[in-house]
Amino acid sequence: MAKKTVTKSSIQKGYVDYLLEEGKKPDSVRIFTKFLKISDEDFYKHFGSLKTIENSIWEGYYSQTMKVVMNDPDFEEMDAREKHLSFLYTFLEVIKPDRSYILFRLEDKKPHELPQELKQTQKIITQSDIAWAKTFEFLPDKAQDATQTAYKKVLWSHTIATLFFWVKDDSANGADTDVFIEKSTRTAFDIGELPALDSIIDLSKFFLQKMGFSKATA
Q1: Residue 203 confidence (pLDDT)
Q2: How far apart are CA 125 and CA 130, in angstroms?
Q3: CB-based contacts of 110: which residues, under 8 Å, 6+ apart?
Q4: Predicted confidence (pLDDT) per residue in 123-160, tens digit
Q5: CA distances (Å), 147 to each of 5, 48, 85, 154, in order?
Q6: In the predicted model, is pLDDT for residue 75 greater than 60?
Q7: Do 11 and 48 contact (CB within 8 A), yes or no?
Q8: pTM, 2 dp
Q9: Which end of the chain is more exposed for a tag (fewer CB within 10 A), N or C?
Q10: For residue 156, what pLDDT is reported?
Q11: What is the predicted pLDDT for the residue at 213?
Q12: Is 98 a residue whose pLDDT tops 70?
């Protein structure tokens, strides 16, 4: 009988299955490998510990998203706002098959209560070359570099806000998330520009409507 092939992705999938079936993280590598019916040795070929599995899952979501958008022949022709929209919509498509896992990890949390694996992913994203991070050309060169770094963090925060909105969204086919993405992205890219106030008001109306405090049309 051929030996079972163990890959990084099969361990990641097995970890997600364990969380959803057992309702908790495995207490040890041995418990987890017995669940997967693999050896500890096979596990350690791919991961140094249990806690690194979820880090790798979220880093994989980001890497896959970037791979898809960068392979889009139209991507380079887009302006910064369109690139960020493309990133967000692609990101949600990438994570959609794992919605049950993401709900399990995030449904009872708030954006400031990020699991450690998302904090680790934040470091990767803010240190990477997000080519569409806004620059403020009216500032001196050194200040531009600093503000672009800060703006990467704004885009990260916006991505997390979108993720949490998607987690809570129970509208048909995620229609409310689409509206949130469009309105909040416009606001994020209007920072420092004259239309910013109109964008903020428009986004506020949308939130008020979702919370039932306003009849205003979003």
Answers
A1: 43
A2: 8
A3: 164
A4: 666 555 555 655 445 444 555 555 666 667 777 888 88
A5: 47, 36, 21, 10
A6: yes
A7: no
A8: 0.78
A9: N
A10: 80
A11: 39
A12: yes
Domain boundaries, the chain: 8-44, 51-210
pLDDT for residue 41 is more than 80:
yes
What is the Cα–Cα distance from 164 to 92, expressed in whole angstroms?
11
Alpha-carbon distance of 197 to 190, in angstroms, equals 8
- Residue in this structure with the two tokens 């531009």, named with its chain if needed: 144
- Helix/strand/coil (H/E/C) assignment for every residue in 16-64: HHHHHHHCCCCCCHHHHHHHHCCCHHHHHCCCCCCHHHHHHHHHHHHHH
Q: The tokens of 32 are what?
A: 């987890």
Structure tokens at 26: 């495995």
What values do phi and psi take at 157, rounded to 5? -60, -40
In single-letter form, the type of residue at position 73 comes to P
